[in-house]
Amino acid sequence: KTPVALLISGRGSNATALIEACKAENFPARVCIVISNNPEAPGLEVARQAGLRTQVVDHRPFGKNREAHEQALHACLTEAGAELICLAGYMRLLTPWLTSTWAGRMLNIHPSLLPSFPGLHTHERALEAGVRLHGCTVHIVTEGMDEGPVLGQAAVPVLPGDTADALAARVLKQEHRLYPAVVKHFLDKTAPACQGGEALLVG
Ligand code: GAR
């Protein structure tokens, strides 16, 4: 199994979905460490409960020196033997140094159908734009924010009367299906290219 590091900043529900998926014998990854920039991230406790190694690499002591923070992060990643990074609600912009160091080995999940709605507040913006389909994307991380090659997407309808919270919950459910499916496909090229129904397309 490929050792995978999960990077989180908060709740950690996508990390939880990946941790669960990794329990299956035929899943090609194992979680070698869960790292958070936020010492209060609830997802850290989930990881600890699962018996996983956790580490806080707080960005605050580094002030404006993003690269120094990332060097500390990178030291933890290599020390834990990570071969793949899955950003799972990691809410920090990354410098070109980290993205190039991990080029092709860092994935991210984003709560929109990229290239629509990169950045924050995706559900509010989808509602404002009046789109009828919304969803989530897993992509390879490159230098540009939310810009790398798309590996998989899951779509959900926008329903009449939707609030941002209702839409976020509908998308999140799909995030939890999509991320493990994409990681499996990414690491294990024998996985089927399309899984779990017509709304979830991987590969
Ligand atoms: C998820 O919806 C994820 O797609 C999003 O943050 C949430 C984290 O939830 N990520 C981004 O917006 C990245 N720019 P989680 O901590 O429960 O997985």
UniProtKB/TrEMBL annotation:
Binding positions for (6R)-10-formyltetrahydrofolate per the UniProt entry: 66, 91-94, 108
Organism: Acetobacter thailandicus
Active-site feature positions: 110 (proton donor)
Stretches assigned to the Formyl transferase N-terminal domain: 4-183
Metabolic or biological pathway, per its Swiss-Prot or TrEMBL entry: Purine metabolism; IMP biosynthesis via de novo pathway; N(2)-formyl-N(1)-(5-phospho-D-ribosyl)glycinamide from N(1)-(5-phospho-D-ribosyl)glycinamide (10-formyl THF route): step 1/1
Protein's UniProt name: Phosphoribosylglycinamide formyltransferase
Site annotation Raises pKa of active site His: residues: 146
Binding residues for N(1)-(5-phospho-beta-D-ribosyl)glycinamide: 12-14
Catalyzed chemical reaction(s): N(1)-(5-phospho-beta-D-ribosyl)glycinamide + (6R)-10-formyltetrahydrofolate = N(2)-formyl-N(1)-(5-phospho-beta-D-ribosyl)glycinamide + (6S)-5,6,7,8-tetrahydrofolate + H(+)
Listed GO MF terms: phosphoribosylglycinamide formyltransferase activity
Domain of life: Bacteria
Role noted for this protein: Catalyzes the transfer of a formyl group from 10-formyltetrahydrofolate to 5-phospho-ribosyl-glycinamide (GAR), producing 5-phospho-ribosyl-N-formylglycinamide (FGAR) and tetrahydrofolate.
